[in-house]
Amino acid sequence: MNEQAPGWYPDPSGENQQRYWDGDSWTEYYRPLLPSTTEPSGPQSAYEDYPYLESATHRRPDVMVTPGTPGGWQSSSAWGTPDEGRESGGTKVFGSGVRSTPGGVAAVASLVVLALLLVTGITWWALSGSREPDTPGPTSGPTGGSGSVTTGTVALGEETPAQVEAGGVWEGALSVDEPVVLILDVRSDTGDEDLEMTVEDAAGNEVTAGDDRGRELAEELEGSSLDPLIAVPFEAGEYTVVVGELDGFASEFSVRATEVADRVAMLEPTQAAVPSGGYWAGSIELPEAGEYVVDVEDTSSGDPVLLTLDADGRVRSNDDRDPGNDDRNPLLESEFPAGTLVLIVTEWSDDTTDVTVTVSAS
What we know:
Elements: E1 7-10, E2 17-21, E3 26-32, H1 46-49, H2 52-59, E4 87-88, E5 91-92, H3 96-99, H4 102-130, E6 149-154, E7 159-164, E8 169-176, E9 180-188, E10 195-201, E11 206-210, H5 214-221, E12 229-234, E13 237-245, E14 251-259, E15 262-263, E16 270-274, E17 280-286, E18 290-298, E19 304-309, E20 315-318, E21 331-336, E22 339-347, E23 353-361
């Protein structure tokens, strides 16, 4: 699905539903599968569609009107005859003949009373809805703390606990001494909130931003799919990491800034060690946009998984290049933009393993 256009597709979990693919990953949005065919409906299927009609015709034949197709029910003439030429779905509609009979007069009177009751009810609902309640009722969503700012510090290689008040933001000072590629990982404590992150420079200009990490990163690096994660290069300087909750709710979370120390050179194999329960990360500068191949060979006995984050913030992943032949080594061939490409390798069972990573132009 890596190159599939955004849209609704069959849910990969096998459920009888569709799931929305946003072009990068499966989202949390579902919808039921629509029927592939439509069932015909008309006089010929009326008894099947509305079983009560059959018994009704035996008790009150005068409530039926002659269908517009041969072979239908026969009705009493007490209701008059339908207007010729006015048909809907194979059944003719009542005409002026109905109103000229005693039964028709009663039916029209009933409809008038029903219309009056309906108008009265709508008027009462509109007037009562416009009045303010005497006492405040329960509220939902964030309350209090609007516009509040909580501050902290983001230290490289450390996990920083933080919180954001309802309707507010958290700002963490980040100091970078030399050019470096960083992975900024924000995770809510409960996984229920929808956090978003923005990084600003000393002048207050936005440098980068991130929202949902998506399913692939959540599965391999943990956290919720709604938690933000970015991997980008930083120049030396002072920065501010701003975290807020998309819907304005209060949230407790953690921020971790991890340096991507290993550099990968084009066509040169790079040895990498994947720790237990963790990941190895490296980066490579792609000189121009184009198609590239990322080849991961396991040199131990593990089952590695590859993820990439490109300069546009798009995530791609690959697990087994040829599972049919029991080849568990990842191989990813795709179009990438020019700029920094961050490579992340994990192990399927969270075991340690050693791999060789090679990047080449396709």
